[in-house]
């Protein structure tokens, strides 16, 4: 009986081995599917060729025909990636309108298709951050409470507690983020434009970046409690409290004085 049991066990071994291999292959496929997201825009060689033509006509006077940059004029774009181009050109900061401490945002000078073409060509010059996917920047998938903690730890000292912006040194400023698109906010964290530091995935994970976007999206919907008072916390709230209290003290003093006379 023991010999027959062993034989039955050995006969089923190939089936068990096949099932184990199938399970292993399924697991590898699942891990591959949940790997790092790729750029949200499919870029072709045709896009890159058209982007090179646009770059030569509109950007090469400062950055050079090979995008290597010019000392004291414009930085090299080799290795900045598609995300930097999409942010700078998509927010209208580039082409720069005039020299100054920093490039302010304005209406874009190119269509989104042209921006994608410029981004495709610059991305072909060297590896760099890609344009984030729609899933990476979807506020509905983020945790606004966790995003608030991350934002106040890493961003509030320049952009303010709710992303309303603030002044920096030497004529520079941190812009308001309340009207920025989720994609541009994510790209700014990836690329560190102007005075902003780079927050790569080791500093702030992609999930936390999305949480920050969710928090800013919540703030852009307005103040649910009524007047925002600038949304700068106890400073404005305390000022209004003192003004109201001082007004009541003055009013009561006048009333007591009038009654006494």
UniProtKB/TrEMBL annotation:
Ranges annotated as spanning the membrane: 239-258
Protein name as annotated: Cytochrome bc1 complex cytochrome c subunit
Domain Cytochrome c per the UniProt entry, residue ranges: 46-126, 142-220
Localization terms from the record: Cell membrane
Membrane topology: Multi-pass membrane protein
Residues annotated as signal peptide: 1-39
Keywords linked to the UniProt accession: Cell membrane, Electron transport, Heme, Iron, Membrane, Metal-binding, Repeat, Respiratory chain, Signal, Translocase, Transmembrane, Transmembrane helix, Transport
Top EC class of this enzyme: translocase
Swiss-Prot/TrEMBL catalytic activity: a quinol + 2 Fe(III)-[cytochrome c](out) = a quinone + 2 Fe(II)-[cytochrome c](out) + 2 H(+)(out)
Keyword ATP-binding: no
Enzyme Commission number: 7.1.1.8
Assembly information from the UniProt record: The cytochrome bc1 complex is composed of a cytochrome b (QcrB), the Rieske iron-sulfur protein (QcrA) and a diheme cytochrome c (QcrC) subunit.
A Pfam cross-reference name: Cytochrome_CBB3
PANTHER family: CBB3-TYPE CYTOCHROME C OXIDASE SUBUNIT FIXP, CYTOCHROME BC1 COMPLEX CYTOCHROME C SUBUNIT
Chain coiled-coil ranges: none
